[in-house]
Amino acid sequence: MSTAGQPSAAGPAPRPRTTGPLPRAAAGDSGLRTIRLCLLGFGSVARAFCALLAQQERVLAERHGLRVLVTAAGTRQGSLLEPQGMTPAAVLAAVGERPAPPLAARPAGELLSASRADVLVELTVMEEDFAPVATGHIETAFGMGMDVVTANKGPIAWNWRRVSAAATVAGRRIRFESTVMDGLPVFSLLELTLPDCRLLGFEAVFNATTNYIIDAMGIGRSFDEALAHVQAEGYAEADPVHDIDGWDAACKAAALANVAMDAGITPADISRQSLRDVPLQRIARARSNGNRLRLVTTVWREESGRVRGRVRAKELDIDHPLAPVGSESLGAILHTDLMGDVFVCEIAGLVPQTAYGVYADLLHLCRAR
Question: Domains in the chain, start-ordered, CATH in brackets?
């Protein structure tokens, strides 16, 4: 695998040099290493991340020797800036129930510069038109000497080689565990626990919204009824087109393939089947056969070396590992050269799990080498 600042298991992908532990920003009398964060995006994941940091404050100090402060937070609607740093609990108190931080919005570059942060935590949402806005944030942070943690799929799925090259030039690091399966370690699994393994390909159920809709259709609801139901339950976005039409799964597939297989692809290179085009009868027939239909993402390398991918509705035997991966669960079968097939599954992957992935990435960045 080739992530910026992480060892390679896939061979020739460009790799930024590592820079060791983050700098000691402010030790003080406590002897703790202070890490200053700039948060771009302050939605549900950022709030859950701040809550987790507050919950873990004592653990971070006693087990890791760290004090984590937030020096800036920003959205397109508002900002918060305190270069001396605020505890994550204080940030949550300052924002309260507001939809955005309380001060006037600032351009991302201006906020990053004023933050004097050690790490950019990039938690903005992927642009509807896949514009490289988050990629620009990351490159700006690298140029200012910051490392980066992101949960935004866009930079890794659409612009990985560009981001990786920028990290190389700046000598910085980036981590992105939450881009594919919430907090479930996939990149870290390949990096830390499967040394020398090459990822040959994978099969995965990457999208929970389509799981809910398929299962609702499996008990007789029409597509429109199933979609309305999952939206009412809060499992689907008001505009779930990226989920329904396979873009979310394709972005996750491209991100994993780019980093772990040096694929050099984008989501546009992955063929997609929209769930709108899957007949109710096909889903019902799978259930009547004792099987399950799932929207399965498959990625493989051809003999030519080219990496290919597709997102397709597939009837799975009930004994298939991905068959029971429904509701908010996600799962993937990783095909490796040395370890064979490895199955990983996340049960109840919700916002807290995504926030944990960001937290784990931050700890990985802070570890001394």
Answer: 33-182+352-366 (3.40.50.720), 199-348 (3.30.360.10)
